[in-house]
Design a protein that fits this description.
Blueprint (H helix, E strand, L loop, with lengths): L6 H8 L5 E2 L2 H8 L5 E6 L8 H15 L3 E6 L21 H18 L15 E4 L1 H4 L4 H7 L6 H4 L3 H8 L6 H4 L1 H16 L3 E5 L3 H15 L4 E5 L12 E2 L2 E2 L9 H9 L6 H8 L4 H8 L6 H17 L1 H16 L9 E4 L3 E3 H7 L6 H9 L3 E3 L2 E2 L6 E3 L5 E5 L3 E7 L1
Parallel strand pairs: 2-3, 2-5, 3-4, 5-6, 9-15
Antiparallel strand pairs: 1-6, 7-8, 10-13, 11-12, 11-14, 14-15
GO molecular function: ATP binding; RNA binding; tyrosine-tRNA ligase activity
Organism: Parasphingopyxis marina
Keywords: Aminoacyl-tRNA synthetase, ATP-binding, Cytoplasm, Ligase, Nucleotide-binding, Protein biosynthesis, RNA-binding
Length: about 425
C-alpha cells in the first residue's frame, strides 16, 4: 500500500477502494488540511439502486467518516440523456414524473447510509447533501453552452472513450443524445465546484475518462484545481458482475427485494471474496476482518454470517438483519419455515411443483426446474423429489419448497 498522510486516503487505501487517483499527492495534502467536498453521480433510472452501486455509496460514506463532505448528485438532467458507459443499447428514456419519483425513493437509501442534511439545506460542515443536476442542466441554452463548453472537447478524443468505442466496435447504435453525456457530466463537476466548492469526484473505473474531462474543463474555464479517485471494477471471485444474481438485480430497497433475499445474497458470498467484501461493504474494524478471513472450512461460514448481518443492517436496518438471520437459522439449522422467505398463496390448495418453483422465483423457468428435479436438487419440506410431474398439496401448515441448498420458498393456502 502507498503511504498517505491524510485520513481519507489512508482509509480508502486500507479498505481496497483505490484504483486510480489523478493527483495523489495533491489530494492527500488537501484532505489533510481542510474539509473536502466530494461527489458521485447517480442516474435515476429505477426507484432503487442495487448492490452494484454500493461501492460508490460506500466511497461517500468513507469520505464522511474521514471528516469530509459528501455530495450525492442525482441525475435528474443526465437521466434524460442516458449514460452509454457499459451499455450495448440505448436506454429507455423516462419522463419528468418518473425521474422525480425515482429520486425521492433513492433518497431513502442515502438517509440510511449517510448523515444527510434536510432536503434543500447544506447542514453541518460534513453533512452530506443531495443535489439534482437538472437544476443547472435544464436551464442551459444550446448555443451559449456549445460556445463556452463544447469548444473544449474534440471528437477525436471523445471517440477514444471506452463507452463510445464499445458501441462502435460492436456496431451498436450510439445516439447523438448519448454522445453528449460525457460533456454534461464534465459540466456537472464545473458547476459543483462553483456552487458547492466541490474539489473531488469519485466513481468506478469506467468513469475515469469522464472524471478527467471534468477536471480539465474546470481548469480551462475557471482555473480550478480538482481531483478524481476511481475504484477497481468490483466483480465476484467467479468473474460475474457485482450486484447481479441468477434471479436478477440485488436491489438496496426492500420494496424491490425482501430482507431475507438481501441477507442471503451476502451469506452466499464465495469463500474467496469474504475478506474483500467485509472491507468494502461493512464498517467492521480491519483487525477483526483479518481474523474472520483467516477462518477455514465450516468456520468461514460464521464470517459469511457476520458479513450478511453487517451489510443488511447497514442498508436495511438492525431489525431487518435480525429477522433475516433468524429466518435463515430456522430454515437451515432447525428445518422450520422462517417468516421472511418468499411465499406464494395457492387458492386451490394444490399446485404443480414446477409451477411453484417458478412462481416463488426459485428458478427462472420450468426447464430449469426440471433440470433441478433430475439432478436431485428439488425438495418439499426437506424431502427430495424425483418426479417432474409432482404436485404439492397445501393444508393448514405452510409447505417449504427448496431449490438446491440455498433457495427456499413457502407455499400457503389462500
Amino acid at each position: 500500500m502507498t503511504e498517505y498522510s491524510s485520513d481519507l486516503l489512508r482509509l480508502l487505501d486500507a479498505r481496497g477502494y483505490v484504483h486510480q487517483i489523478t493527483d495523489a499527492a495533491g489530494l492527500d495534502a488537501l484532505a489533510g488540511t481542510q474539509i473536502v467536498p466530494g461527489y458521485i453521480g447517480f442516474d435515476a433510472t429505477a426507484p432503487s439502486l442495487h448492490v452494484g452501486n454500493l461501492v460508490s455509496i460506500m466511497l461517500l460514506r468513507r469520505l464522511q467518516q474521514s471528516g469530509h463532505k459528501p455530495i450525492v448528485v442525482m441525475g435528474g438532467g443526465t437521466t434524460k440523456v442516458g449514460d452509454p458507459s457499459g451499455k450495448d443499447e440505448v436506454r429507455k428514456l423516462l419522463d419528468e414524473d418518473g425521474i422525480a419519483s425515482n429520486i425521492a425513493a433513492i433518497r431513502r437509501i442515502f438517509d440510511r447510509l449517510l448523515t444527510l442534511a434536510p432536503e434543500g439545506e447544506e447542514g453541518g460542515p460534513t453533512d452530506a447533501i443531495m443535489v439534482n443536476n437538472a437544476d443547472w442542466l435544464d436551464t442551459l441554452e444550446y448555443i451559449p453552452f456549445l460556445r463556452e463548453v463544447g469548444r473544449h472537447f474534440t471528437i477525436n478524443r471523445m471517440l477514444t472513450f471506452d463507452s463510445v468505442k464499445l458501441r462502435l466496435d460492436r456496431e451498436q447504435p450510439l445516439t447523438f443524445l448519448e454522445f453528449n453525456y460525457m460533456i454534461l457530466q464534465a459540466y456537472d463537476f464545473l458547476e459543483l465546484s462553483r456552487r458547492h466548492t466541490c474539489r473531488l469526484q469519485m466513481g468506478g473505473s469506467d468513469q475515469w475518462g469522464n472524471i478527467v474531462n471534468g477536471i480539465e474543463l474546470a481548469r480551462r474555464i475557471d482555473g480550478a484545481e480538482l481531483y478524481g479517485v476511481t475504484t477497481p471494477l468490483i466483480t465476484k471471485a467467479d468473474g460475474t458482475k457485482m450486484g447481479k444474481s441468477v434471479t436478477g438485480a440485488i436491489w438496496l430497497h426492500e420494496d424491490q427485494l425482501g430482507h431475507y433475499d438481501y441477507w442471503q445474497f451476502w451469506r452466499n458470498t464465495d469463500d474467496r471474496d469474504v475478506g474483500r467484501f467485509l472491507r468494502l461493504f461493512t464498517d467492521i474494524p480491519l483487525d477483526e476482518i483479518a481474523r474472520l478471513e483467516a477462518l477455514e472450512g465450516a468456520e468461514l461460514n460464521e464470517a459469511k454470517k457476520v458479513l450478511a448481518n453487517a451489510a443488511t443492517a447497514m442498508a436495511r436496518g438492525e431489525q431487518a438483519a435480525r429477522d433475516a438471520s433468524e429466518t435463515a437459522q430456522k430454515t437451515f439449522e432447525q428445518g422450520a419455515v422462517g417468516e421472511d422467505l418468499p411465499s406464494l398463496s395457492v387458492e386451490a390448495g394444490e399446485i404443480a411443483l414446477l409451477d411453484a418453483m417458478v412462481d416463488l422465483g426459485l428458478v427462472a423457468s420450468k426447464g430449469e426446474a426440471r433440470r433441478l428435479v433430475r439432478g436431485g436438487g428439488a425438495r418439499i419440506d426437506g424431502e427430495k423429489v424425483e418426479d417432474e410431474g409432482a404436485s404439492v398439496t397445501i393444508g393448514d401448515e405452510p409447505v417449504r419448497i427448496s431449490a438446491g441448498k440455498k433457495k427456499h420458498g413457502v407455499l400457503v393456502r389462500a
